[in-house]
Design brief:
about 200 residues; 8 helices; about 65% helix; about 0% strand; transmembrane
């Protein structure tokens, strides 16, 4: 990748080479202004990518929360997957206390929103400070209760998969946030690897 090539060039104290250059060619040393330009270019690219990831997470959380709300106010409390994949068992009852577990799922979504957009949540909830979200480990543990109960009661796979959806959303958020954090760390590391060119 171009970003990795730039970082390698700083580590070797010589500039990066374009892929079409032959290995025997001499590489030109980047001066401080050129280094700043490379870092700034990568910083902007990382900011654009992070914004796109954040938008994707926001859309995912909103759509998932809307599905949970639809289920919460549904009289039948049956898995929405049954609409797409009908079961041979008609009118199968859901797991016990479906409304309570749905409220738990919405609570998990709120914590994920805090992890992704703490400032936005603080403004919407009119809080003085950013709220402190629960850890991913605790979120996974809480999300595992409904599907475990569904498996224990031998519900259809449509019902069990539905109750697994909060854990899937948690995994998606954690994975994307890790990618964003890795990008930020790479730019910060590249910044620290700048050097003074000889004769500058």
């Amino acid at each position: 990748m171009r970003q990795k090539a730039d970082m390698d060039s700083f580590r070797r104290r010589i500039p990066f080479k374009f892929s079409e250059q032959e290995s025997g060619e001499d590489a030109e040393i980047l001066d401080e202004q050129q280094q700043d330009a490379v870092v700034e270019k990568l910083r902007r690219a990382n900011a654009v990518a992070s914004a796109q990831y954040q938008l994707m997470l926001r859309i995912t959380l909103v759509l998932s929360a809307l599905l949970q709300l639809v289920f919460l106010f549904s009289p039948s409390k049956q898995s929405p997957l049954l609409i797409i994949f009908p079961s041979s068992v008609e009118h199968e009852p859901s797991i016990p206390f479906p409304s309570c577990f749905t409220l738990l799922s919405l609570f998990l979504h709120l914590n994920l929103a805090i992890l992704c957009h703490p400032d936005l949540v603080r403004v919407h909830l009119h809080l003085n400070n950013n709220p402190q979200p629960l850890s991913y480990e605790l979120l996974y543990s809480m999300s595992a209760v409904p599907p475990t109960l569904s498996l224990f009661l031998q519900k259809t796979w449509q019902t069990t998969v539905w109750w697994c959806s909060p854990a899937l959303i948690i995994f998606i958020v954690q994975s994307v946030m890790d990618v964003i954090e890795t990008g930020n760390q790479s730019v910060a590391e590249l910044e620290s690897l700048k050097y003074v060119a000889p004769g500058a």
